[in-house]
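Blinded run. Sample ID left blank on purpose so nobody reads anything into the name before looking at the predicted structure. Input follows.
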Amino acid sequence: MLGMYVHTHWAYNRPYAARTWTLEDWQGYLSGLKTLGYDFILLWPQLDCMPGTPNPSDQAYLAKIARVIDLAHNTYDMRFGITAAPNTIGNDRAPAYSFEQRPYFVCEQKVNPSDPAAVARFLAGRRQQLAPLAHSDAFFMIDSDPGGYIGSTDEEFVALMQAQLNILRETNPAMEMVYWMWVGWENYNSFWARAASQKEGEPDPEIQVNVQDFRKTLPLMAERIAEPWSVTASNAVHQQVTDQLGLANKRAFFPYGLIEGEPTFPLTRYAPQAIADRLSDYTPAVYPRGILANSQTHCMQLPGAFLFAHFAQGGSMATADLEQFASHVIPDCAAIVARGWSLLETDSGADLRAASRAVRAEAGKPLRMGKASGLLFGDADRFLIDLADNLEIRAALVDLRAVIYEHGDAKRAIRTLLATLMPYQARVGFVDAYYGPLRADLNEQVALLNDPTLTAIANDFSNWREPARRNGVAQRFFDALAVYASA
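Blinded prediction complete.
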């Protein structure tokens, strides 16, 4: 298996947010991934904030995904998995929103696994949600984020897994159950207990991987989950415990966040050495079930998707031909695009701006499409303008960091950044909390200015006690930066 996880958490614009993709978008993306060697798709259809009785927009979305599963099977010979949290489903506010616009933390509820009546209602809702997706090949369940319930046990986690799998296997007895190992169910619930008692100004509680959870959960699965079932492993603890329990043959590698973390403000990444180094741990002998990548904004992470597939299939840094890949996407300007990608992580503002101008000059020209052009989501000009803006934003961030370090005119540098960042953000539509390059190169630099208004808004990015406050915080932050820089 060489798979790609498609995440749908945040509501932003098409084609940036996967929850907005049309059937044609899906077809193009599958065709592009297929050229790189991918043969498996994992989708989070966001059942976890969808009402138990799906509204018309949810029904339309689920019907579309049913067609996508058929497309993957019948046209691209790809397997297709779905994922859901153990105990989360839409609350009474969820039906008022369309699927594409639904804010997750506003509409999610966590069901108490020890309340039989609540679990019965939850499973009745899951039955309605899962029915259109039952011809998928695998059902993944993570042991943390976004599920969890303070005080709940690993045994309750496996019971919730078994109950939802049973619903799917009524229609599809061959459905594979995949345990997405992360931090451990009871450990995650302990984290939330600490977060709930956190006081203003105290450091955020930390999550540590807890091997004891896995030592309890995996034997329970072996006892209660009928074959086929497998696990994903992301770190040395996962590998160790599956080795100790004789489950190495069930293991797939899932180095989450390697191409792009989430939540991340949508910016294209280019980090070949980091991907190569991380995938040096991967061999089919150690992970016989294969390997999974993930992205949040797939239409921007083309170089990462290429590099991940290249190294996962045994390629090296010396054989990673970025320009050749670009020629399969957009052949008439492959060299310009490849150079733009390769410069994204540089610290030279002059080089970034020169590359931006070269890429932008290609927009509007009649351009041929290559065999992987489905990765453009039907719009070469959109792709080129996005890449040009990415390069310009990176250049402005380089300048801002230098200005703040040298105690220069930070307001002027912020104005220069916002002149590109805010129109770009309006086009992309991402407004929520983020990590990634923008967090490091903007938020962490702005923190050095010690402005009370900016600091107060920035604190909401990491608000664990009230996650709904993270909705829209990026927009509030950018607007406050504009006010600050204009004063």
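Unblinding after everyone has recorded impressions. Strands lie at 2-6, 40-43, 79-83, 88-90, 108-110, 138-142, 176-180, 229-233, 251-253, 291-295.
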